[in-house]
Each structure stands twice: as C-alpha cells, then as structure tokens.
Automatic annotation (TrEMBL):
It comes from the Bacteria. This is Diguanylate cyclase. It comes from Paraclostridium benzoelyticum. Pfam families: Nitro_FeMo-Co. PANTHER family: DINITROGENASE IRON-MOLYBDENUM COFACTOR PROTEIN-RELATED, IRON-MOLYBDENUM PROTEIN. SUPFAM superfamilies: Nitrogenase accessory factor-like. Residues 15-102 form the Dinitrogenase iron-molybdenum cofactor biosynthesis domain. Gene3D superfamilies: Dinitrogenase iron-molybdenum cofactor biosynthesis domain.
Amino acid sequence: MKIAISANGKNLSDLLDKRFGRCEFFQVYDTETKEIKIIQNKGNQASGGAGIAAANQIVDENIEIIITGNLGPNAFDIIEENSIKAYTCECLPIEDILKKYDKKELKEITVCGPKHQG
C-alpha cells in the first residue's frame, strides 16, 4: 500500500505541509517495501487548480492513503471519487506521522476544507 504525505522537504525529518495542493513534495511511503519515493507536486507551480492537479497526480501514482492538513472541495471530490482515504495531521516530522498512522492516531478527513483563495 502507498501512503502519500504532503511535505516541506525530501527527508523523513522534514515537516508535513498542511497545504495539499500547494505543498512542494509528496513523500510516498510503500508499506510493503518500506521505501520512500519523493514526488514533486505538480500543483505547487500551478496558477490555478492546484488541488485538482495534486489530486490527479495522487490518483496517477496509485496512492491509497493521503496524509495532509486539509483538502479543498475540488481535491476532496477527486480523492473521494477514487476511494482514496485521507487523514489530517499537525505539522510533525514525516517519520512521526508514519508512527501515528501505524498506531491509528490520525483523524480521517470526511468533509472538505474551505476553497483556497489565491
């Protein structure tokens, strides 16, 4: 199973970025191989529709779980339509977030956040 975490950097010690559509990277953790893959977020540089671009990228990567701050309405709809589970977390190091996920300590995102303006 692949878990994508919106991140400020490429290392496990880097923090979660609460901005799903505008985060710089997604750190993708494969629960079977225990490997981390770094993906540059295509939504980060988009002039508009960042959440849509990021959500479509997550779908294309066959991600099954997302951990982020929140999801705007468009990203939320795409994630939900593709049966991807989403969880929210505070800005902690990625390695700590993975531990919280394993312990089932993260809250599932069941409603979208506000639409981002600008």
